[in-house]
Specification:
The complex is a heterodimer of chains A (216) and B (239). Chain A contains nine helices and no strands. With 216 residues, chain A is mainly alpha-helical. In chain B, the strands form two sheets. Chain B has a six-stranded mixed β-sheet with strand order 6-7-8-3-9-10, with helices on both faces. In chain B, α4 packs antiparallel against α5. The chains are: A mainly alpha (216), B alpha/beta (239).
Chain lengths: 216, 239
């Protein structure tokens, strides 16, 4: 597993994957659809897939003394690593906004989605959608990047829904700032985490099955 | 002793079929794999590396089937092609450092020796290499983990005569050390020099599989070279 991840990091990854982790800092921007930060993180991962395709990484990996499913595993490990790093930054900055910066006027008067555990749960859903739609779709051919278009549509519909949900009567608590609705929001975060694990796990199984079938 | 055996390999594409390909590679021999473009050489080689799925047939290495034992078999075989370069923007050293992690048998001394022999600079990137040097770079990876079987898809393409000569010399040395080599090429004069056996494929079917001397005797006329025999057989097949 270590060798697989090392190959992804040192040979096939695009530097943009690491640079785009910084998009997690968008969590701090008031009056901005902060979930776009999660989307930009996945855009960075997408660049690594593009890079890998240009470098013949998939065939090179398939020639190594590893199982074909390990080629898929390497890509998932790398993506999950980047997503986890971005999520960690988002979580820290969310905590910062909820505590030290809780009295800051721009955050109190924020017209859009607040950063709270619900936001973090939705960021995980965006990551899960990327893993399911893009990575799972990529391994249908191991060279076509077009599933990213479907993912963009799904991601922005999800961002739109997350931005709109608290306007539905009775669901305002989803967007509550501070710790008032913390238990509810934490359960939503756990729900997002469960969905992320489910989407990534299902996607991995599908990608392995697809990759086994294709001719390189 | 037969180290590699292909039995009844079939692969159907809409416009091409690999039909019942069967042959074996003897231990410590160089086998030339000849056939014109599109004859099925690369499809056969890809099936030997499990890069494509065959519709029927079985491939065995060291007496065990490839399917189900792929990981341990790939530890003991090497592949090189003259037509693809891996990770063009990474240095050779970076590629080596990662690749060696997958091979417990990786021999860094041998790697340095081949790097010197091929005049490869480990600080260079594949994109900075000439076509011939790319071939050598690919060979370096295949040779440095002590492969017992080498599958070489047009390894001499793009090489200058001197480099080709060096490489053929190396193949013969490897053969002396017991390495089994399958060598697909269009440059039949290379095989005249180093091959023990010839496998001739045409339109997805094996037309000949025998020792080179038998091939020359059975298919050649008077003073024909291997290339002349190959060209005549292809013309006859087309007629």
């Amino acid at each position: 597993m270590k060798a697989l991840l090392q190959k992804e990091i040192r040979l096939s990854a695009s530097v943009l994957s690491y640079i785009f982790i910084v998009a997690a800092v968008m969590t701090l921007i008031p009056g901005y659809p902060v979930l776009c930060g999660a989307f930009f993180v996945t855009l960075g991962i997408f660049h690594s897939f593009q890079n890998a395709r240009e470098a013949n990484d998939i065939v090179y990996s398939a020639l190594l003394p590893i199982a074909k499913t390990d080629v898929v595993k390497g890509k998932y490990l790398f993506s999950v690593m980047i997503e986890a790093a971005a999520f960690f930054i988002m979580a820290l900055l969310t905590l910062l906004r909820m505590t030290v910066l809780s009295d800051a006027h721009p955050y109190i008067a924020n017209a859009l989605m607040n950063t709270n555990p619900f936001f973090l749960g939705m960021a995980l859903v965006i990551f899960g959608l990327f893993n399911l739609i893009f990575i799972g779709g990529f391994f249908k051919t191991a060279y076509k990047l077009s599933p990213f278009v479907t993912y963009i549509i799904a991601a922005f519909l999800t961002i739109g829904a997350a931005e709109a949900v608290h306007h539905i009567p009775g669901l305002g608590a989803f967007n509550a700032f501070g710790f008032e609705q913390f238990p509810l929001q934490m359960s939503l975060l756990l729900g997002g985490l469960a969905l992320y694990i489910l989407l990534t796990g299902v996607s991995y199984k599908i990608a392995c099955a697809r990759f086994e079938k294709i001719d390189l | 002793m037969e180290l590699v055996t292909l039995s009844g390999i079939c692969k159907y594409y809409p416009a091409f079929r690999l039909n019942n390909v069967s042959f074996s590679l003897e231990s410590g021999k160089i086998t030339g794999f000849i056939g014109r473009n599109g004859a099925g050489k690369t499809t056969t080689i890809k099936s030997m590396l499990n890069l494509i799925h065959t519709d029927s047939g079985e491939i065995c290495y060291f007496g065990v089937p490839l399917i189900g034992h792929e990981t341990e078999i790939k530890q003991r075989i090497g592949y090189s092609t003259g037509t693809v370069s891996w990770y063009p923007r990474k240095t050779i050293r970076q590629i080596i450092d990662v690749t060696r992690c997958f091979y417990p048998n990786w021999d860094e001394t041998a790697c340095h020796r081949y790097m010197e022999l091929f005049s490869l600079d480990e600080r260079k990137k594949p994109m900075e290499l000439s076509e011939g040097m790319k071939v050598k770079c690919n060979l370096l990876f295949a040779l440095s983990h002590g492969a017992e079987v080498l599958i070489l898809d047009e390894p001499t393409s793009g090489l200058d005569p001197f480099s080709r000569d060096e490489l053929l010399e190396l193949f013969m040395q490897l053969k002396e050390n017991g390495v089994t080599i399958l060598f697909s090429t269009h440059i039949t004069s290379d095989l005249e020099r180093c091959a023990d056996n010839i496998i001739y494929i045409s339109h997805g079917e094996i037309r000949a599989d025998c020792p080179k001397t038998d091939f020359m005797q059975n298919y050649g006329k008077s003073d024909e070279t291997l290339e002349e025999i190959f060209l005549r057989l292809e013309r006859e097949a087309r007629a």
